[in-house]
Amino acid sequence: MYLSEFQQSTSEPITVYLDILLFVNLIINGVILFACTRLTGAKTSFGRFAMADTFISVYGLAVCLPPISFTLCTAIKSLAAVIVSMIAFKTKSFRSLLKNTCIFLFCSFCYVAVLMSIQYLPFCKNSIYIQNSEIYFNISVPTLLIAALFLLLATTVASRISASRKPVNAFCDCTVHVSQKQVNLRCFRDSGNMLKDPITGDPVMIAEKNTLKEIIPHVLKTRTRMIPYHTADGKTGIMTAFRPDSVKIDGEEKKILIAVSDTRLGDEFNAIIGTKI
User: Fold this and answer.
1) From start to end of the chain, where are the E strands?
2) Contact yes or no for 99/40 (Cβ under 8 A)
3) Measuring CA to CA, which residue among 192, 216, 196 is closest to residue 272?
4) CB 246 within 8 Å of CB 239
5) N or C: which end of the chain has fewer CB within 10 A?
C-alpha cells in the first residue's frame, strides 16, 4: 500500500508503505512499553497494553505527514507520551505519571540510540529520515527487531539488578474478608510498622481508606477500636482500626487488625504491614 513520499537530506525520495510501517511500529513500541513495565514495576493489563501500543504506533505515522513546526511537534510528542503512560499504566498520582512518562521517553531514546549506532555499519549508510520529530529508519525489519531485542535484554538486566538491591519480599498480596465481602490489597513490608493492638498484642496493618470502602460500613458500629501510634518524626495520634473476619497474606491466614488511613500510602501499594507478620 503506497502511503507517501518525503525527502531525504540528499533530496532522494523514499516510498513509505503504511502496512509495513504500522506493523513494525506495533512490534517496536510493544517492546518499548514492555521495557517500561520492567523498569517501573508498574502494573498493566493486556487491554491497556494493547491500547497504548496501538495509540503510539498510529501516532508514529506522523513521519509521513506534511512538516510542521518543531515547537508544535515537541508539544504534541510530549502530550502523546503522557497519554501513553495514562493508558498503559494505572497511575495514582502526578508523580507516578511523571515517572512512567520519563521512563517511556528514556526507553524510546535508548532504542533510537541503538539504531543510530547501526548507521556506522557499511550496509546502513543514509538510512535515517526525520519528519515532524519522528524518525523513520530505512533498515530491514530483521535489523529493527534485533535492535528491539537488544533493548529488551538490556532492560531485563537492569530490572534484575535493581530488584536485587531491594528486600526479597518487599511486597505481598493480601485478601481481607468481612461479612462475605472481599478486598484485595497490595502490601508493603515495612520494618518501621510496629503497631500492635494494646489489648491483645496482635499486629496491625495500615490500609488506605479508599480501598476499604466496600467493607467499612460493615465494621463501623461493632468492630472498631482505637490504636495509638507514634511516627519516627515524633508525631503521635490515634487511628481507627477493626478486626476482619479473616486476612490472608500470600495465601496464609493471619490474625491481625486493620487500621484505616485517610491518606494515600504509596504508588505501588495501598497497605503497610510489619516485616514480622
Assistant:
1) 2-7, 13-17, 128-131, 134-137, 171-178, 181-189, 204-208, 224-230, 236-242, 246-249, 252-254, 257-261, 271-273
2) yes
3) 192
4) no
5) N
